[in-house]
Amino acid sequence: MVSRFRVFWRLRPNFIDFLNLGKLKARGIFKSLNGIIVIGSLLFFIAALSSGYFFMFPTFQPVISSHENSTLTDLDIDMNSTSPERDVHISSTLPDLDSECNVFDGKWVADESYPLYNAAQCPFLERGFNCLANGRRDNGYLKWRWQPKDCDIPRFDVEMVLEFLRGKRVVFVGDSLSRTQWESMVCMLMNGIKDKRSVYEINGSNITKQIRHLGIRFSSFNFTVEFYRSIFLVQPRQVPKRAPKRVKVALQLDRLDDISKEWIDCDILIFNTGHWWTPTKLFDMGWYFQVGGRMKLGMSITGGFKTALRTWKSWVESKINPSRTRVFFRTFESTHWSSGSKQNCKVTQQPISKVNGNDRHPYSDVIIDVVKNVSIPVTVLHVTPMGAFRSDGHVGTWSDNPSVPDCSHWCLPGVPDVWNELLFSLLLSDQNP
Ligand SMILES: *[C@@H]1O[C@H](CO)[C@@H](O)[C@H](O)[C@H]1NC(C)=O
Ligand SMILES: *[C@@H]1O[C@H](CO)[C@@H](O)[C@H](O)[C@H]1NC(C)=O
Ligand SMILES: *[C@@H]1O[C@H](CO)[C@@H](O)[C@H](O)[C@H]1NC(C)=O
Ligand SMILES: *[C@@H]1O[C@H](CO)[C@@H](O)[C@H](O)[C@H]1NC(C)=O
Ligand SMILES: *[C@@H]1O[C@H](CO)[C@@H](O)[C@H](O)[C@H]1NC(C)=O
Ligand SMILES: *[C@@H]1O[C@H](CO)[C@@H](O)[C@H](O)[C@H]1NC(C)=O
Questions:
Q1: pTM of this prediction?
Q2: 207 CA to centre of ligand 4 in angstroms
Q3: What one-character-per-residue DSSP string does 344-392 give?
Q4: Spacing, Cα 126 to ligand 4 middle (Å)
């Protein structure tokens, strides 16, 4: 099955290929931890208990359907894609992750201490996301920090995080937006490594858009940060006999990806999926759903998405040991295509103040709903609202293929760095009871 599918996959490079990514800014230093741990340990313990549940159930409103249209079609564009020094100042505020604080509810604040790393010093940042290297002239988009409404997050402290990750295995699973977060994390962490040669891809592989597995080893800290490309999370197979002619691939919604067994044995596991669940990337390409060995030609894409997520839920519940592995699921990453045109991507110089419903997405809703029901702890990284403001953060035409504008992926440094800051703040806060 595996090898058959690989062969098949090679024959169809066009639709394997595609998401790129973007940029974002970040910063922050998890501040000097000792103080936090000592003074805040009781607080953290209480917070971990209650906020864990809170993060799993962020408030979420019904989706606005008019928005669904533009976001569900706008990634078509990707079908054509081919392939400073660390801030030293220390925050004076204690992290205040009390149970009332939803760190995903907040605003962007201008902050000159960002970005968190210099792209030129990170060999694992792919060209397509390095907007400055690709000719972007304005750099205000690099200088924003995320400020939660009801609490502060600790600044990113690379030394503390490197130490925290010692001996661990971090695994990202998903589409190119997961690859972006993976690259962002690697670059944020590399900033704290003096001997850059001690950080390497395990098999010496270069980063490409279709590669299924990449692993960066931080040898001096004995940990790896890996990325598995699994755009739907569930397993495609060749078209069954006697299927209608338009069917080219059956996406088996009831079977998790065949590489999923490689995700199990890790310490931190971060999922995403969403950007490929569109009519143009599925039905128009001859990809249809299958459940229980039967084609479900009439099933809607949203229905397929929900079914796949339930398969993911059963997999997590049966395979993941919650005392070993901390699981996260990132919600839909906001896009900024102007309505009506897939080609219409205007990257602004400043974040926008009105998100016009873009802070919600139907897939984020589904993810939040399904995660709620998982019997082991899973934390939603609800990045949809914060991304909605950042129309300034996309790759636009500053990618490796300037002829195809991109309002889906983010420049790096940029917005995905903040996803990692929040991820680390959650990990470190539940580590310190
Ligand atoms: C979505 O787009 C299609 C075609 O582009 C259009 O016919 C339909 O009315 C749109 N739906 C909404 C809810 O805007
Ligand atoms: C991809 O590019 C081809 C030619 O370069 C064009 O005909 C096609 O419409 C493009 N597809 C999308 C989805 O933009
Ligand atoms: C590296 O980490 C692994 C756990 O991932 C551990 O078993 C091993 O002993 C560590 N090696 C060293 C040299 O610390
Ligand atoms: C990676 O890219 C470099 C430069 O393009 C090339 O020299 C090298 O052979 C590539 N490595 C692999 C494993 O493909
Ligand atoms: C390295 O290569 C081995 C053998 O081909 C493969 O199983 C493994 O997944 C690769 N690891 C990474 C991180 O690329
Ligand atoms: C969650 O579980 C409840 C109760 O078992 C069920 O009614 C609901 O449909 C489930 N939601 C999802 C998204 O699976």
A1: 0.77
A2: 10
A3: -B---SS--S--TTTT--HHHHHHHHHHHH-SS-EEEE--HHHHHT-TT
A4: 13
